[in-house]
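Bit of a strange request maybe. I'm writing a small parser for structure token strings and I need a real example to test against, not something I typed by hand. Could someone generate the tokens for this chain?
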Amino acid sequence: GRLLAALSGTDAKRPYASAGGLYPVQVYLHARDITGIAPGLYFHDPLAHDLAAIAPGLAHPPDLHFGINLPLAEAAAFSIYLVAPAEAIRPVYGAWSERFCQLEAGAMAQLLAEAAPALDLALCPIGHMAFERIQPHLGLDGEVWPVHVLLGGNPEAWEVLTL
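Reply from user aminoacidic:
Good idea to test on real output. This should exercise your parser:
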């Protein structure tokens, strides 16, 4: 929860830019091994800075990550999914909507990356995953864009994997 505090704000203003102040990018935490947080999938409410369990006990599907990312994913204590429901921005920005969500997610990832070391955490951005394995658990209808994914955990646990 403390890491995601870097993204918290008010309805009108958060610590990162968003096209038109719409803030369409949503944050989901997939907990695996976090002290004080049961394993499962959570929605992060940035206004209340609260985690709401949406799929308690949901394990990481074995085919969620692949290739070079697989060992890192297996050692991760958690994943952060930044996703955007298209209807949250498309009526205002049309064809530019997905690009604006990518910019917003980049700013969010930067804030998380800056906050992580003070919490003795390491984050690794992941370029691709089998989003369709997670999407049904998010409870979102309509078109949903997987904008960005970050794996996180203890830096010492990953040191061997990154050398």
